[in-house]
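Please predict the structure of the following assembly.
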Amino acid sequence: MIRFDIIKNSNNVKARAGLLYTDHGVIETPIFMPVGTQGSVKAVNQTFLAEDIKAQIILGNTYHLYLRPGTDILFKAGGLHKFMNWNRPILTDSGGYQVFSLAELRKLRKDGVEFKSHIDGSKHFFSPAKVIEIERFIGSDIMMPLDECTPYPCDYDYAKKSVELTSKWAVLNKEAFEKTQPLYGHQQYLWGIIQGSVYKDLREKSALDLVKLDFDGYSIGGLAVGEPTEKMYEILDFIVDYIPENKPRYLMGVGKPENILEAIERGVDMFDCVMPTRNARNSHIFTWNGIISIRNNRYKDDFRPLDENCDCYACKNYTRAYLRHLFVAKELLAYELASVHNLHFYLSLAKNARKHIIEGDFPEWKNKVIKIISKKISKEE
RNA sequence: GUGGAAUUAGCUCAGUUGGUUAGAGCAUCAGAUUGUGGCUCUGAGGGCCAAGGGUUCAAAUCCCUUAUUCCACC
């Protein structure tokens, strides 16, 4: 069983600060985990990731890594940590989301999912046991089980069947996990993923089924897939109480900075999202003063840093005008600097949230910063 | 000098036998992006169709003149 120490509970809200122990290091929660789908956080090298951004754990994706480079290469390399030169924790998503997002290629079966590779069209089959096997080859510290992520909107009957399937698979995931061993000498842990779309009774059923199996942690999946944000908060308010308090809670794929803070307030400990990196590549910059679209014409002669309150590599060394120029010229450095900055912002956001939970003024701080950081900067002061 | 071709958005070009408010790509400008199928998607602005004159109910389209550019031949 993974060790998770809650070092401080918030007084009025469910937010908490904790320490999550893995063989690759201790993670301070709440935490944001940069997404490195194919064994690389896009446009960011591992040195920056560790030393500047101060990422404590990153994500890999089972579906993508299985297709390329494949488990034989990962095994020969000694696991993903060595392969990519990252010695801090790694969490792998199972490919359950790809089952949903690549829906045209999939065929759901009771025992797993058939799909066609988006790379070469070849046919493959994922079962819960197969996914665990692949994650053993990858060597991720925290493994996600195979699940089905429902789209939104999703009618009740489909969501119900989907929860039943995900619960059935959870049993098989857990069995496979217990029957197999880590390959590289460090411990691996398995989470359960709660589904149920926007239906509270289905969410409850999903949570009860999974808690019975006693996973190391619990993920909340199937949110931020298009439902109104208020709906997401409503489900979070409801579902967190069904997850044992001493287990880490992971809200998959979320989200915008304000979504993360609202979810922390509701008791979530872990987050991942492509937003800081994908948006960085599209010139969308998160700052403590609000959102900047750095390609905008008005930054062409703005020689201030992206964010005057930031000490990341990009802000310490380069100006808005230069970043805008790089984006307009489609220079590769644009993607690197913007990604470093946005990830640094997300990690700072989590770090500050943690600090204010410990200091006891999280809700006040949260309400104050959300107003500022979620707004687009439209007029320069 | 002679003959031919061309001239349409900032750039490169479409534009059917003349027929409503002349299109595209790129560029520009502005949005979007939530367990990532690496440079994506959506939208907007921008043209007295080289200039002038004719023919016609109607001209980017046909005719004439001029200008500019390119090609071929003396």
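The mean pLDDT of chain A is 94. The two ends of chain A are 52 Å apart (CA to CA).
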